[in-house]
Amino acid sequence: MKNTAILTLGVGAAMFATAAYAGMVDDIKKRGELICGVTTGLAGFAAPNDKGEWAGFDVDICRAVAAGVLGDSMKVKFVPTTGKSRFPTLQSGEVDMLARNTTWTFDRDVKLGFEFAGVNFYDGQGFMVRKDLGVKSALELDGATVCVATGSTTELNLGDYFRANNMKYVPVVFEKSDEIRAGYIAGRCDAYTTDRSGLAAQRSQMPNPDAHVVLPEVISKEPLGPLVRHGDNQWGDVVRWTLNVLIIAEEKGLTSANVDGMKGSTNDPEVKRLLGMEGEYGARLGLPNDWALNIIKQVGNYSETYERNIGPNTPIGLTRGVNAAWNKGGILYSPPFR
Amino acid sequence: MSQTDFGETQAVFTPKPDLPPPAITVGIIGWVRGNLLPDWFNGAMTVLALIGLYFVIPPVVNWALLDAHFVGDSRKACKPNVQIVRDQVVTQATMPDGSTMEVTTSADRIVVPEGVVPNVRWERRMVEGVVRGKGREYAKVVVEKDVVIEGACWVFVGVRFDQFIYGFYPKSERWRPTVVIGIGLLMIIYMLTDGLPHRGRVAMFLLIPFPVIAFFMFSGGVMGMPHVDNSKWGGLVLTIIISSVAITGALPLGVALALGRRSQMPIIRWFCIIVIEFFRSVPMITILFMALVVLPLFLPPGTSFDQLLRVLIGVTIFIAAYTAEVVRGGLAALPTGQYEAANALGLGYWKMMRLIILPQALRIMIPAIVSLFIGIFKDTTLVQIVGLNDLLTMVQLAVTDAQWIGLSKEGYFFCGFVFFIFCFSMSRYSMYLERKLHTGH
């Protein structure tokens, strides 16, 4: 009797184990909903709008994955995570993926057991100046006074950048970001430096945001990207190639508006593969063959989501800078789709 | 024995009416003298407080009411509709070494476009600024310019009000939480009002069938009401759900744990001690994290155990542990004579507790328990870290929407106001209860 009980328990455990390894893609299809971890609100990246729908640059990554896997970009459950809770939440399986302004580092990739699916935003330290200063590039800041947070890596990066470019500067240091902003507004310095997305957020809180401009240079590396747990490589591939689809679509000029028309008229073999007219590329990911078509149709290409959420015409007002496509002077680059 | 007849000169004592109290001890003057200026020290404190209020109240009233924007449906309604012209002015600036020099700087001037009724106030102020002088030196300059007076943008709270209250609950179904919470509130008020009939029955209804009905109303899936996943519950409604479940669950559980801790039976006693001490010695954040992260690791994979339920259980046990210690304090405060008297009457353990001990002990504990419950109500905001969207989270999410960014003052003001109303009414009720049940031990 006792042996039978133990045996049953063993079989039970094995059954649970197989259930867990059945593959995230199938799990998500069965559930009919993608569970995506986002931030607890970051302007332009993730926040609910007046209608209660989540919107933002990170949110669009989740929506793109849902469009690819489930064919409907609205079938996403968003779980807001804080800086502290984001990694445990992903590890414990509460969310399928994180798209949460997370910097890709060695430790997070290797030690925490995550797989970064790529980079959707190259953040990094940048500069903001008053528009009427007429400065167009950080390289014109020789001799400038710069407001910066004291004792931060930001301060070190600033020193390195100016030394490397053989320029002089005078640092004006503050403790807190509010103080820096106040100092900058009061004219204590010519330029204000911190992460570019942070600069954009600070700018939108200034009395006259239009009078300031974030310069295109990025002087430190903060690659932000979506990530998944170790253990299901197919699922990691789905997220990675969803991001790549957005980037390739921009490169090939596919937009949410024209993708249906392009499907009929294109002669580009890569576009044909991408849109599922040649080969069985979707099926190899366990997805329908029109998965990329759905992504582009429902979410748009990289440029569209950028312009919609954080681009120059939004309150965030970030220029593309280094996030431009590789053939337009940026470093955004997707491996070929073949 | 001669008798003296006092008949005609009988003295009758007719008291004269009391003199009215001195004028300076009654009325407004008396109140002011008695409460505000009884001696020089308190008088000085009164003056200091008045000065403090003078610096706090007018700016707050100006910001929140007089200069505020109430009407509209987008951020535009709060933007000043006047034009700001930047004039170039030549003025004297002071260099760091004390010398002065002539500099050109800009001064804002506000122009009202034709046909526009300005929606803001502004005033001309001397504003100190810094301009770039020779080389890298900065010179101080004082310019007279128009400054727009900032007012609150309540349009933001108005537009987001539904989200603050209901979270992501679908619009067409929002009547459900409204009905449930409305009925719940009415029943609580009925139950707490003296002299109404059947208060006990209402209380029983509120305690047992009502939570079940409420759950089905919120969750749906029965009687043609569409299912609403509890990840969509949020805002003030979620705050109320969590705190009311925690409060109604923690009180009986806490009493049971307290009785168990004082029990003569070692296993029960030790079990209760372990539960109480464990949950009291870790912070609530840890409990929430455990509920979110650690519990799923112990459960067999593939079994998903609802997140809100996990949080509710965690919070309830946490609060119950604190309640248990308060109850134990109340039990310990009763004189042993009460227990001995109950024993002498031949009452058994449960009868003794129910009829003699608990009614007295609970009265002593009211202030402590209510302050515990007020604490829970505020602590529910911690559920943010496990991804539940309570009132505070909804406010924080709203102020990071690019359209409304920078309006955190308005959002937090509203949030604080709502919490104040709830906590203040709980605290007033407990004071009323204390007076009513005043026990002169």
Characterization of this structure:
The complex is a heterodimer of chains A (338) and B (441). Chain A contains 14 helices and 14 strands. Chain A has helices at 2-20, 24-31, 57-70, 86-91, 106-110, 153-164, 177-185, 196-204, 233-251, 259-265, 269-274, 281-284, 291-298, 302-309; strands at 34-39, 47-48, 54-55, 76-81, 97-98, 114-116, 121-123, 125-130, 144-149, 169-174, 191-195, 212-214, 222-224, 227-229. The N and C termini of chain A lie far apart (57 Å). Chain B is α+β, with helices and mostly antiparallel strands. In chain B, 57% of the residues lie in helices and 11% in strands. In chain B, strands 2-1-4-3 form a four-stranded antiparallel β-sheet, with no helix packed on it. Chain B is extended, with a radius of gyration of 33 Å. The two termini of chain B are 60 Å apart. Chains A and B meet through helix 1, strand 2, strand 4 and helix 4 of A and strand 3, helix 3, helix 9 and helix 13 of B.
Would you spell out the secondary-structure blueprint of this structure?
The complex is a heterodimer of chains A (338) and B (441).
Chain A (H helix, E strand, L loop, with lengths): L1 H19 L3 H8 L2 E6 L7 E2 L5 E2 L1 H14 L5 E6 L4 H6 L5 E2 L7 H5 L3 E3 L4 E3 L1 E6 L13 E6 L3 H12 L4 E6 L2 H9 L5 E5 H9 L7 E3 L7 E3 L2 E3 L3 H19 L7 H7 L3 H6 L6 H4 L6 H8 L3 H8 L29
Parallel strand pairs in A: 1-4, 1-5, 9-10, 9-11
Antiparallel strand pairs in A: 2-3, 6-14, 7-13, 8-11, 8-12
Helix pairs in contact in A: 3-9, 3-13
Chain B lengths: L26 H10 L3 H27 L16 E12 L5 E12 L10 E11 L5 E11 L5 H13 L8 H18 L6 H9 L1 H11 L15 H27 L4 H15 L3 H15 L8 H27 L2 H9 L4 H31 L9 E2 H9 L8 H29 L5
Antiparallel strand pairs in B: 1-2, 1-4, 3-4
